[in-house]
Amino acid sequence: GQNIDQPTEMTATEGAIVQINCTYQTSGFNGLFWYQQHAGEAPTFLSYNVLDGLEEKGRFSSFLSRSKGYSYLLLKELQMKDSASYLCAVRDEGDDKIIFGKGTRLHILP
Amino acid sequence: KAGVTQTPRYLIKTRGQQVTLSCSPISGHRSVSWYQQTPGQGLQFLFEYFSETQRNKGNFPGRFSGRQFSNSRSEMNVSTLELGDSALYLCASSQQETQYFGPGTRLLVL
Asked: From the list A45, A89, A103, which residue is nearest B100 (CB)?
């Protein structure tokens, strides 16, 4: 079957670093995405990993280990505007569908 | 470039009615996907269209249907609405791997 797991909620402090984990089980793999979604808004693209390793983009980095079915999103120098839900999604190579996790709601405290 | 647009933004219907939602992708994008988002289930894939052909379909009943026109604009239709169809319906267009989401149509079924 297809399954993507990520924590439901996390809390972190402004200026700190937070790591949001995502594990997946799919019949095939053809890329992993991270999206940010503010309340009441549409998801916006953050990162795409298809090979193992770390992809850095400003304050955000995303890591992928295909052998472990594992990814994380690392957010540095947290700002209040980073309070949002973070969605992990995997493109299943078998049926080419993109499967989303239920999202991690991140709360930033001042 | 203009982003993905969806109309209408909000809709209230009663059980048994039908509804048609519209999506205009980013200019040049030929792939359009539809998702249903609810608090309990997260983002769930409905279907994907590419060059007027349905390329993929999620696990939704036949009451949910869609189509894509030659200008890549897409519509989705839900017939015989049920209370459980109340959700945010998101459309995303893509050119390669990355999907860009529209603001969504929030449907309330009474």
From this structure: A45
Tokens found for residue A34:
């991270």
Q: How far, in Å, CA of B3 to CA of B26, rounded?
A: 5
Min Cα–Cα distance to chain A from B42, Å: 5
* Residue-by-residue DSSP string for A23-92: EEE-SS---EEEEEE-TTS--EEEEEE-SSEEEEETTEEEEEETTTTEEEEEE-S--GGG-EEEEEEEE-
B102 and A42 within 8 Å at the Cβ level: the answer is yes
Measured between beta carbons, the chain B residues lying within 8 angstroms of A50 are: 97
Angle at B100 between CA B95 and CA B102, to 5 degrees: 130
To the nearest whole percent, how much of chain A has pLDDT over 90? 81
Is the separation of the CB atoms in B23 and B32 below 8 Å?
yes
Mutate to test the interface with B, among A97, A99, A104, A105 (most CBs of B within 10 A): A97
pLDDT in tens, A29-42: 889 999 999 998 89
DSSP B40-96: TTEEEEEEEEETTEEEEE-S--TTEEEEE-TTS-EEEEE-S--GGG-EEEEEEEESS
Distance CA A10, CA A62 (A): 17
